Every structure is written in structure tokens, then in C-alpha cells.
Amino acid sequence: MIHWPLRAREREYDAVLGALTGPPGAAIVTGPAGCGRTHLLRQIADDLGARGHSVARVFGSQAAASIPFAPFAAYLPAGGDADPTRLLLLLAERLTRPVGGRPPVVVVDDVHLLDEGSAALVHHLAAADGPWLLGSARSDTVVAATVNRLWRDRHARRVPVEPFTAEQLATVLGAALGAPVDAYTVSRLHRLTGGSALLCRELVEAGLASGQLNERAGVWQWTGAWRATASIAEIFSERLAGCTAEERDVLAMIALGEPLAFDVLARATRLEVVEALADRGHLVTPPGSRLVTLSTPLYAEVLRTTTSAATMRRVSRQLAECLDADGDPLLRVKLLDDAGDRPADADLLAAAVAALERGRWDDAEDLARRAAPDPERSRVLARVLTRKGRHEDAAAELLTPTGTPDEVDVAAVVATYCRGMRSDLALSYLDGLPAQPSLAVHRAYALSSAARYEEAIGVCADDPLLRTVQPHQMWAVHMLAAANYQTGRLDTAYALLAEHDTDEVPTEARVAMRFGRCGTLAAMGRLDEADEVAADLLALGSEVLRPDMMCIATSTRAALAAERGRWETAAEEQRAAIAVGRLHAPGTSLHGMLCRLALAEAAAGRTSAAFNALAEAEAYRSERPAYWVLVDEEERSHGFVLACAGRTTEAVARLGALAERTIEQGAYQLAVEVALLVARIGQPTRAARWLDRVPIRHAYTGVHADFARTLAAPEPDAFRALADAYADRGAYGLAAEAADHAAQGFARAGRNRAATAAAVWRTRVQDEHEVTPLPWWPSAIRVELTAREREIAALAAAGLSNQEISDRLTVSARTVENHLYRVYAKLGVRGRAELAEALGATPSRRPVRP
Questions:
Q1: 190 plus 257 within the same structural domain
Q2: Does residue 694 form part of some domain?
């Protein structure tokens, strides 16, 4: 058993205490079964008891609902008067005696289960002066009229408690387990339980007992299938007790195929039965939707395990016959299998594609192999095998069919070869086909994969945004965008990705489009927009429970935090992404996550952890020798980590080789980023020479190049302008670093006031945006103002008088004067006239488009 501290209920806790300590002196916590009402009551009662209040606790129950005053039996005298009125008055007198001058507290859990006499007593206590009444009632059941009048007559405040949101659940689990829980586990747990505190607790404790919920690298995650425990089955069996045989059939049907459309249910059963189940809380229909689900997915698990096999076969066949022709192919095949019928080959292949889209790759392969061999089976199976990294097997499948390959076959063969890092074979294959314009997009794909970026772009010069491509060619879109990105054509790269990021695109390609959009927006200095795209991707992954999407989105958010200089946040989120990614990361993306974790750990001062992450990344790559593209990211990360560790010579050696290689390949965007890093760690002249060989094709890339060149020929005013340019784009880490160089330059030039202003600005950026300073910052000037000093100085610089500042901050004018005196001394200024210049401009939070 673990301790479950009260979390994510602060608002409800405060509302209850407010109702008790002020009018009306009573509160009733309401909510659906299992939402945590009892836990909240228990915590408040314990806290009030610890403060010296006497606390009387009683509980309503179904078994005692017909016995007068049964919940209050402990407070009745033995063999006393049986008259209900006198008993009520006697209990009221005993329960309202103050202790130590503090109001007594009466806690009544499940007031909806009270007998009439007990309900009348509760109403009497709430209406009386003196005692505090704290109760709970289910919101999804009928409450006695006497209790209902409590909040209607304003004798008690009603405080609703809702099931946990996914964010609240993450907070609760982290507090209970003592460490964060990965996003995929939280999403699955929330989806299964609907946010029910009771069901969450049962599943978590069962997972701990079975070892399926375990901690790795400081993050908790669930591995394996989720199963309803005996205690969970018991919880739901109580709800099933009152159902008829027809109702249980409908529940079993929905358990097999949820969500089900009303139209399907109307063909399979009587809608009156569905409505009756919905009225009793067994079924849920979202507002504006015609889909029906069970109250929680765990309910479905219980129904599937407690319904007889014969009934499940009958219901499966009945439901399969009622599905729409364009319904879920995976569900159709599953129902036919459960009924003992063989699905058609077309159904099997459609189900395999659906499983692939949902990230269920093993299921997709099994389904495809069950179909009879033919060209369509080969195409589907090749897609699945490619997704599983078995590129040679995929190519063998595609090249087996005889005859002239059609457009879909060509796309599949090229994608298979390229994703297996054999672009040479893809180009040879294309060379062997009859020349035709439609092959251009496939050739661009292969050339991009071979790092022949300019050739790839040239092949598609007549249609740079590939507006004529088909859904099966989307990987070519992604790779052509990569070619534009690498050559520094960021606007074209983003336009290409945005053009094809639509609902019609296959899911796996859509994830790649979103990931590419995030990276391109970041390279363009549009970090706020990149954050929005990453959040959309994470929300989509959570909605459809795709762990591959979720780990990619979380890793992307971490990378964006690093772009802002928030290295601690970046490390935390990257660790969470890797916790999911070890099992679910698509392709070779786990390698990139490990490299980015190394950056964040090194920047945060944990170089040992950074080298460990790099070692894991190198081991991962060594098992995949064909993936030469992994080397570049690894080398850049290694150079950064070495620089953070003070091993600058080694860092420059690694980064120098990488810069030369990327310039030769025409990967100019990466070359600029490497050159800037080399300049920042102490070799700006060398970096400037590399930049002379690189075309600058975007304004934000030009800002990076200007920073590197200014480091080679320092000019403090230029550094200060660069700081503003970075801050305008949300790159607060680079902004603070540039301001740090400006402060040093101004000080060396004897411009002390400007040096102080730059230093103050730098410090404010660090404080406001949680920027971690890096080891190579000069940090020559340190001006530390307290939070109150900064606040008063900013108001004074804005033109407010001492009295106006005093009135706004509710402090004395003398206090304002004293603070300003200290500010003037620290900043080296003589009065208000010089204060604004010394403080510098406030860092912008608005994204600026180049």
C-alpha cells in the first residue's frame, strides 16, 4: 500500500473550509462514485481534528438505510427513548457540544444513503448555529428531499468534485509515487478510469504489486497490458446487479466495439434499452456526438471477462452484421474472429492498415500475413515491415510480384530502400524504370536520403511544394522538406510541411510533418508557434493513445525549452520522453532523444549524466551501422558536452570536422549552428571563416551568423542589439548570453552605465525565463537587485512618483525612497533620469517573424 496525499483538490479544499468557517457553516461535497469525495472529507476532518476541533464521523450505508438513526447509533444511549423526535433532539444536543471553545465538527459520508430520521438530523444540524457540518453525496444518484433542501435553502454550500483531468492525475500520481509518471502511462490510466480516483488507486496498487508499474531513470511507467483486478470487478459487479439479460447483452456489445454509433445500436437492439442504461449512468454520450461508450474502458474489461463465451460469440456475430460497410475494419475482423467466422482478405488487409496507423505493428503484420498472397498483400506487408525496421524483408516482398510496377509499388519500393538507408538501391531501381514525369518525386526522395540536397530540390523545381503528390508519396514530401531545411531554405521547408499536414495524410507521415514543422519553426525563430504545434501533436497522441506520437511530442517540447535556455525543464521533459521512447520511439528517434538529453544534462551542470546519455546513444547507433545520418547529431552533442565539461580543445576538434563535412554536403543550416557553437566556446575566428563559405537564406540564420562574427570582432552595441533580436524571438538563453558579452564589452570600453544596464537586463532575462547560464559566458558584471528593488525601480523608471509607487504597492513612501537609494548605489546612477537607461528594455515575449 502507498500513501495517497491530497493533491489537485486545493480549490475544493479551500471552498469547503470557507463554507465551514463562514456562512453557512456547512458544506456538502458532491460528485460521481469513486471521484475522491471520501478522501477529501477524511483529509479535512483530520486537519480540523489536529487544530483542536472535536470531530464526529458517521457513514451512510445501503444496508442500514431502513433503520432509523443507524449511522448515529454510537451516539445514542443504550436502551433509550425510541421516539424519533426526542432521539433527534438528543443526538443534536450531544453532537453540538463545543470543546475548548471550538465549534464541533460533524462529518457525514454518503448522506444520500441516510434513513429519513438521519437525513432530518443532518438538516437540523446544518440549520443550527454552532456546529460545523461536513457531508458528501453522490451526484449520480437520487438524494433524499431533506438533504436536497440543504443547499436549496442555503443551509449548506454544495462543493462539486469532478473526476481528475489528465494533468491533475499526473500531479496526484507523482506525489503518491515520489517521482514523475511518463505521459503515456498517465494518458492510458486516465483513459481507462475516466479520472476516477478509486479506480486509479486500484490500478496503481495492482501495478506496483505485479511489477508492471516500475521506476526507471527517475520516471515511473507501465509496461504490459492493463487488467481489471478482482476488487475492480467487484466495484462494477454491484452496478451490473440490477441489469436485465437484454441490458447485459447491450453492455457486452458496447464492450466489444465501443465507441458505437447510435445507428449501429439501432440495428442491433432496441434504443429504449440504450436510453435506460444511459439514464442509469452505465453509458456515456459526449455532447453533440452520436457515439456511445461505457462509463469507463475498465467497465468493458470487466464485462468481457465476466460474460460467458457463448454470449460473447453470439453478440459478436450480431454486432458484426450490423456494422456499416465503411466502419472500423479492425473491429470488424475482431468481431468475426470472436464469432468463429473467417474474415475476407480485403477486411484483413484493411484491418492491417488500420493497425499500422494506430501504431500496433505486430498486429498489423499478423493481419496482413493472414490474407492470401497477392500484390496488395505485398504492399501492405512491406509498409508494416518497413515500420518495424525490417527493410530487406520489405524490399523482398515488394519485388516479388511480376509485371510492371504501378505508382503505389514504386513509392513503396523507394520508401523501403530509403528508410533502410539504401538510397543507392532506390536510385538504381528508379534508373531501371521507364522514364516518366511521375518518378520525379521519388527521385527527389532518394536524392534527399543520399544527402544530395541541391539535386533533390532541382528535380522538383517545377512543383516545389509538391501539390500534385498522392497520400502514398508523403514520405517524399517530408524528405524534400528536409533537403530545403538543410540547405537553409527554411521558408520553403515550412511551406512544404504545412501544405501537406492535413487530416487526409496517413498518421505516421502526419507525425513526421508535425515534428518537421516544430523543428523548422524553431530554426526560423518562431518558438511560440513551435510550442503550439508540439502541444497539438501531444494532444493528438493522448487522444488516440499513440505512445510514439506522445514521446516524439514530449521530446520536441523539451528541445524547444532548450532553445529558450530552460535547460532544467528540457532535461526533465527529455527524460520523460525517453521513458516512453525506449519501448515506443518510432524509427531511430530514440537516438536523437538521448543526444538532446545529453545537451540538457551538460548545460545543467551534470556532465557525468550527459556522457552517460551519449554512451547510450553511441551504443544504439553502433547496432545500426547503416544509419550514418545519426553521426552528425551525435557529434554536435558530443562537442557541446565536452565544452560544458571544460574540454574545449576536444570539443572544437569534433565540431570542426562536423562543420567541414556539413559545408561539403551543402547542409548549411547545420553548418551555421555548428559554427555558432564553436564561436561561443572560444574559436570565433575559425567559425567566421566557415560562415564565409555558407549562404545565409533566412533572417534568423543571419542572426546566428552575426553573433558568431561579432564574437570574432567584439562590439558591445552589436551584442546588445543581438540580445534584443534573440529575446524578440523567445530565445532567452542566447539573448542573455549576448547581453553578458555586451556587459563585458561596455565595461572594457569604460561605459560603466551601459555595462550595468546590460548586466541588469541579462539577470532579469535569466530570472524571468528560468535561463541556465552556460560555462563559457563571460559574466564579468554582476548587479543583483532584489525582487522588491526591481519592482520599485521599474515603476520609478516608468515615471511614477514615490507617493504613487507607495500607493500602488501599499508600502510607505519612506520605504520606496530607501529602496531607490539602494538601487541607485548598485546601478551607479544619480537619479530617476538615468534609471531607465541603466535598467535596459524589458525583454519581449512576443514572437517576431523575420
A1: no
A2: no
